[in-house]
Design a protein that fits this description.
Layout: E1 7-16, E2 19-29, E3 34-38, H1 45-52, E4 60-65, E5 68-69, H2 77-88, E6 91-94, H3 106-116, H4 122-135, H5 151-163, E7 169-173, H6 181-196, E8 200-204, H7 208-214, E9 217-222, E10 225-230, H8 232-237, H9 242-252
Parallel strand pairs: 3-8, 3-9, 6-7, 7-8
Antiparallel strand pairs: 1-2, 1-4, 4-5, 9-10
Helix pairs in contact: 3-4, 3-5, 4-5, 5-6
Amino acid sequence: MTEQPMVQMKNLHKYFGENEVLKGIDIDVERSEVVAVIGPSGSGKSTLLRCVNRLEESTEGEIYIEGILLNKQGMKPKEFQKHLNRIRTKVGMVFQQFNLFPHMTVLENVIEAPIHVLKKSRKNAVKFAESLLDKVGMLEKRDAYPKTLSGGQKQRVAIARALAMEPDIMLFDEATSALDPELVGEVLKVMEDLAKEGMTMIVVTHEMDFARRVADRVVFIAEGKIVEQGNPEKIFTEPAEERTKQFLGTFINGFGS
């Protein structure tokens, strides 16, 4: 643990029109900590992640990435965009959908951003990309196009692509929700390996077994508020709040997804 959290969210609010999706979220994420965010659909979990990566602008509150304020701070548009781009290089994100470029091979997908954003040489970018593809079990598909891959393979490439930017923090937004059940395990294995290597991670997930086994902390969100958070074993076996019990009960009774 360090004195300065890797991610800090302070009194985070987000409105879409009159609909308040996030209602005063406070979360600190320490270096190498894995935080699993769980909760019912529509509770604001994905919006929370999108605010951390500034894909959505929070309506109120502050977000700090490694001590650097993400908000505009009165900057001019061009100045703020440069500030935002610098911070975004620290944060990798993996979405529900894979968002791979269909006209590029697996390798080309992974090296695109390091070459054009980080200004790496093609030789160095390829070498690093191949090591990442090997890590996620996709090196033999380096010259394949996305349309020839399974969903699980595409998601593993998407993880390699995010890692190619050498982020300090990884965000996962329901990374397995679009996959057939038999393909979920291969993606969760890659995520678990990242956790073991000390990657700081915020994982929005419905995979309760993964959250229980891999996370250092579980945060349960419902209706835009943190209802309960703490040690995974404690949350899953002795939840303090009735709303948490109701939510976890749907999984225990076999109705979770």
